[in-house]
Amino acid sequence: MDTMRDRFAPVVSQVLDEDPRVAVVLAEIGAADFQETARRHPDRVVNVGIREQLLVGAGAGLALTGMRPVLHTFASFLVERPFEQVKLDLGHQGLGAVLVSAAASFDWPAGGFTHMAPGDVALLDTLDGWTVHVPGHPDEAETLLRHAIAAGDDRVYVRLSLQANRAGHPVDGKRPLTVREGRSGVVVAVGPMLDAVLAATEGLDVSVLYTTTVRPFDTAALRRATASAGTDVVLVEPYLAGTSTAVVNDALADLPHRVLGLGVGRGELRRYGTLEEHVAAHGLDAGSLRERISAFLARRDAVPAAS
């Protein structure tokens, strides 16, 4: 199976051919994949080199002229390093752009902590007006990329990852899907966490919601699910644990409820290892998830918790 990032250059290149308003801005990463496209559209494929602040600033400049810029590099260099430019050049000026990242939380462990970004979604969540897509399969990535580019002048973040579920689902960039129905709680699986969640909850009487769009979070769908499954909610996110617990707490504020936030821990893992070893170390493999979810559901009289 190809990767989500394998879909990025072909999709954006096709859109560049079709829509003269679209431009792509790169910071060296991924530039080789756009060589042919750059020959066709030399004024709309811009490589600023390893200058990530300029990447965002140049995208904002293009947006000021009425263009729809698509900006791409690793997540740590797209959201964290140029955060001031994301905040001011785009947000403060009310400009739209599509930020498309690679490497996710720890997709390239050999790159070290500089190339890891488990806090990217939480950081963007401090800003107003962002849509955040977290596809779980290359087919979903392609669909959500097209949605993002076509989304008028909105600010959209598309988080690509090497982690992927075995099969894609018919996502629409808005509503979550009910994958399994139960009566003893709701487990929300985000993007590439779905397969592990389904394996972890096999035989448990819980509903499983699958979402690839976490901002805005579809709280209405969550409330519908809790109406039949109960208000114990487990969030399984492929980035910083607890990123969406406040959203869920707000959605259920008028109801007695408990929330468990599972995801990437705050502790830095200082060994390179493999992607799979990092998943296991953060307790996001199916076996660890089953233990943590089962223990949470068994403590129905416990104080509401997030971890």
TrEMBL record:
<protein>
    <submittedName>
        <fullName>Transketolase</fullName>
    </submittedName>
</protein>
<dbReference type="InterPro" id="IPR005475">
    <property type="entry name" value="Transketolase-like_Pyr-bd"/>
</dbReference>
<dbReference type="Pfam" id="PF02779">
    <property type="entry name" value="Transket_pyr"/>
</dbReference>
<feature type="domain" description="Transketolase-like pyrimidine-binding">
    <location>
        <begin position="2"/>
        <end position="167"/>
    </location>
</feature>
<dbReference type="GO" id="GO:0000287">
    <property type="term" value="F:magnesium ion binding"/>
</dbReference>
<dbReference type="InterPro" id="IPR009014">
    <property type="entry name" value="Transketo_C/PFOR_II"/>
</dbReference>
<dbReference type="InterPro" id="IPR051157">
    <property type="entry name" value="PDH/Transketolase"/>
</dbReference>
<dbReference type="InterPro" id="IPR029061">
    <property type="entry name" value="THDP-binding"/>
</dbReference>
